[in-house]
Amino acid sequence: MIGVLAILFVWSKAMTFIKKSPPDIPVVEIPEDLALNVSRALRNDVNRSLHLLREIAMGHDLKKFLGVIAGLWVLSEVGSCCDFLTLIYIAVLMIHTVPILYDKYQDKVDHFAGKAHTEACKHYQVLDQKVLSKIPRGPAKTKKT
């Protein structure tokens, strides 16, 4: 990109020295309605994420809390192995290949995901019986209407 910009700059300056017209470079603009639609969609995603984080921080859902903690831990482990640009490359690659592979091997993936879900539920039940059920809890608060 820098090389192309430098070549166009030198070409434009050279054309003025030899009294020719500079290269015709088209004007590129983002339409306002497209920018508004993208910003609205981004705002909705950010608001949903903030709502999810608020619900987790208030302690309403233990499963979501443990999922977020596990996800952040995995992200930190992967981030310690490679830099941000490599993570972006990996994310773009996965965004383009995973849906195609899922469509091709949907039956096998669904079967494996079902088995993994049952195993995760078994482990959660063990965790609930041995640890979570022993945590003392206060009386449930009544909701104000």
From TrEMBL:
<protein>
    <recommendedName>
        <fullName>Reticulon-like protein</fullName>
    </recommendedName>
</protein>
<keyword id="KW-0472">Membrane</keyword>
<keyword id="KW-0256">Endoplasmic reticulum</keyword>
<dbReference type="InterPro" id="IPR045064">
    <property type="entry name" value="Reticulon-like"/>
</dbReference>
<feature type="domain" description="Reticulon">
    <location>
        <begin position="1"/>
        <end position="145"/>
    </location>
</feature>
<dbReference type="Pfam" id="PF02453">
    <property type="entry name" value="Reticulon"/>
</dbReference>
<dbReference type="GO" id="GO:0005789">
    <property type="term" value="C:endoplasmic reticulum membrane"/>
</dbReference>
<keyword id="KW-0732">Signal</keyword>
<dbReference type="InterPro" id="IPR003388">
    <property type="entry name" value="Reticulon"/>
</dbReference>
<keyword id="KW-1133">Transmembrane helix</keyword>
<feature type="signal peptide">
    <location>
        <begin position="1"/>
        <end position="16"/>
    </location>
</feature>
<dbReference type="GO" id="GO:0009617">
    <property type="term" value="P:response to bacterium"/>
</dbReference>
<keyword id="KW-0812">Transmembrane</keyword>
